[in-house]
Amino acid sequence: MSNEIKGSRVRGQGPAPAGFKQGSEVRRALNKFYDRAFSVVGLIATMVGLAVLLTLLIDVFMDGASRLGWQFLTSYPSRKPEQAGILSAWVGTVWVMALTFIIAFPLGVAAAVYLEEYSKKNWLRDFIEINIANLAGVPSIIYGLLGLGLFVRALSLDRSVISGSATIALLVLPIIILSTREALKAIPPSIREASYALGASKWQTISYQVLPAAMPGILTGTILAMSRAIGETAPLITIGALTYVAFLPTSPISSEFPFLSLRGLFDAFSVLPIQIFNWVSRPQKGFFTNAAAGIIVLLIITFLMNGIAVWLRHKYQKRIRW
């Protein structure tokens, strides 16, 4: 009898047993319950994270909004809280972030393109991939020690802007490489095959087809990397970045031919996270207000930097037509 029932179910010649229907209905009900429970848990976790973030932002703005002003942005640090400013700190932050991007982005993309498009599957590639993945999780203080030994002492670059930028570039380089590789993997093979079919070389295919299509994913990884870099303090303190700077790096624009100057790369510097850390460690209440105002400025710089990257990503996304 059971064989007849099974045969009729396979051939579609009869209804399924009542027990089978009840079991399938129970499984569907459980699956729906699990889906709803997961969505509720995910929503609660998201709301808790947003509530904590919003609370912190409101607290920071309430403490530091009154200190924001032109005088605060254009004044150098001072021992008196009411006269202290962040001019050297935010200018140093812009210098370090710009140089970090100039160093890390092309190196990271080039390394990812080589590993994903050109390198052969062998033990050397596996060794490199394992080390890159491990470097992405190394504490930032280790990169500070590396920058101190390599850039400050071995290369005699001293405690300069270029030393700090190169150290932070090493910190974010593994993140850019990993995100770029994932973006390249997401490009359908048909894009490459169509380009080869039209007679394009490998480099032409990569530069004109693959990289533009993968650029939104590459920029997403770069946004995450630079967002981490702008708040790093430990590596810069390790290499000897100053907490009190009453001057700016030399301007890259010169009045003499060739109208460009690289002297600013070798000047001492400070950044906003270090300045904020210095103010928080002071006992005077006015420095806490200055620190809150500095956090607001740091958030604004971060949002502007990420906004430019998001705009570029959206621009590339509109060009993609699968």
Structure keywords:
single chain; mainly alpha; disordered N terminus; 322 residues; 12 helices; MetI-like fold
Q: Give me the CATH fold name of the largest domain.
A: MetI-like fold
Order of helices and strands: HHHHHHHHHHHH
Which value, in Å, is the CA radius of gyration? 27 Å
Mean pLDDT: 83
The general outline is globular
CATH superfamily of the largest domain: MetI-like
Secondary-structure-derived class? mainly alpha
- Cα(first) to Cα(last) distance is 54 Å
Helix content: over 70%
DSSP strand (E) fraction?
A: under 5%
| CATH C-level name of the largest domain | Mainly Alpha
What is the CATH architecture annotation of the largest domain? Answer: Orthogonal Bundle
The number of domains? 2
Number of strands: 0
Biggest sheet, open or closed, and with what strands and sense?
none
Low-confidence runs (pLDDT<50, min 5 residues)? 1-12
Number of helices: 12
Write structural notes for this entry.
This protein has 2 domains: 21-67; 70-319, MetI-like fold. It is 73% helix and 0% strand. Residues 1-12 have low confidence and may be disordered. Helix 8 (189-197) runs antiparallel to helix 9 and helix 9 runs antiparallel to helix 12. The radius of gyration is 27 Å and the shape is globular. It is mainly α and 322 residues long.
